[in-house]
Amino acid sequence: MSSGSKGLGKVEVRLKWDPSPLGQPPHHLDIIAATYSAEAPCGRPVYIVHYDSRSPDGTINMSRHSQTGQGFGYVEAMTLELDRLAPSFARVVVGVAIHQSSGPKTFGDLSNAGVLVVEGYTDLLKDDFAQIAGSTAGTVVEFTRDGSGVWEFHEMVRGFDSDPVAFSVEMGSTPSL
Fold first, then answer.
1. How far is CA 53 from its chain centroid?
2. Which of 9, 29, 114, 169 has its CA 20 to 30 A from that of 160?
3. Backbone phi, then psi, for 108, in 5-degree steps?
């Protein structure tokens, strides 16, 4: 799926979840993006962007971050300027991981969790993680660059059972190329 003949430009991935019940450790989720080179679109990521980092060229960064889910609506957001990514990149995979520091938590343990992927005013994906309720992490979307340099969107909701560090390496393992 593509947003038009010119392809995708600036995309935002937004994340929401309700805070944990009073007296319980906070639920902490993170959006993670992994970039892959044209030479190895299924290999190891060239770099990974998460709450504590940004891409070296500034094309992928966190514009909002939450460690608790407190706030209204989508409380965490990552911006991806695909149209500014160097031609050496052919694939970007974006996922969400739940921190496991206070014991095992899956998407099914969270209330009102969801992800929204938008380009401008166009919703590309809206998901509530129900299909991966038993997982601790999951990919949500894959962006690929075709032979003419146009970026395309592919829904890729897949569950993983790993912590954020392991997930960041595994998340691009099965592409839709």
1. 14
2. 9
3. -70, -20
Sign of CA dihedral 19, 13, 53, 104: positive
Model pLDDT for residues 76-110, shown as the tens digit of each residue: 999 999 999 999 999 999 999 999 988 899 999 99
Q: Is the dihedral of CA 18, 19, 23, 26 positive or negative?
A: positive
Joined together, the tokens standing for residue 140 give 């949500």
Question: d(Cα 100, Cα 78) in Å, to the nearest integer?
Answer: 21
Q: How far is CA 156 from CA 5, 141, 159, 163, in A?
A: 22, 5, 10, 19
pTM: 0.91
- The kind and range of the H/E element at 168 are helix 164-170
> What tokens does 31 get?
């959006």
What confidence tens digit (pLDDT) does each residue in 2-26 have? Answer: 444 578 999 999 999 999 888 888 8
Cβ–Cβ under 8 Å, residues 77 and 30: no
Region of residue 173 (phi > 0: left; psi between -120 and 50: alpha; otherwise: beta): alpha
| Token reading at 173 | 């393992």
Q: How far is it, in rounded angstroms, from Cα 140 to Cα 176?
A: 12
> Could you tell me the two tokens for 2?
């593509």
Residue 112 CB: number of other CB atoms within 10 A?
Answer: 10
